[in-house]
Amino acid sequence: QKEVEQNSGPLSVPEGAIASLNCTYSDRGSQSFFWYRQYSGKSPELIMSIYSNGDKEDGRFTAQLNKASQYVSLLIRDSQPSDSATYLCAVDTGRRALTFGSGTRLQVQP
Amino acid sequence: DGGITQSPKYLFRKEGQNVTLSCEQNLNHDAMYWYRQDPGQGLRLIYYSQIVNDFQKGDIAEGYSVSREKKESFPLTVTSAQKNPTAFYLCASRLDRGTDTQYFGPGTRLTVL
Question: Are B63 and B50 spatial neighbours (Cβ–Cβ below 8 Å)?
Fold first, then answer.
């Protein structure tokens, strides 16, 4: 079993819709969770970090964490074509280095 | 990309040659990391360093070497022992005081001819 799992997609949503990206992780001791956005050929950029159960909102982005279910998600409201990218879920399993999922490719259709 | 620079942006190497990728940061971050990304895949950890003169192997360290002689610099050498070195190499750094957030450099794309 992979430590961090994501559906590779592509996830296709129409412009203005809500995009929902999901991630599961295997290490129950994980404490820190991150979502990065990566455009093709570019390096990842941080979108959100979340450390405690519940929701965390930042503009059009909401991260949700459920440690009991070992599940973290990212919601993007009012999706724009510029949101089209690969979204990487990353988890700090305690070794002070991140473990990444393989990413979900999001396509926002104009 | 913040204050993390990687050079060169593109690098071509012949089989059997060692090559060194540069990573420099002026963010006064304590920890630095090297990841490798293959097409359509996530990032895999090669090496990381929490402090100067100390570093740890990541998940795919074979065929790579690093040094951390200065806080600002964490060069990665891809040796001829690395069987399939063609990939996108990403350096990251983190302020090791109360935050786990890693910030990435722009990356180096290495192609072995």
Answer: no
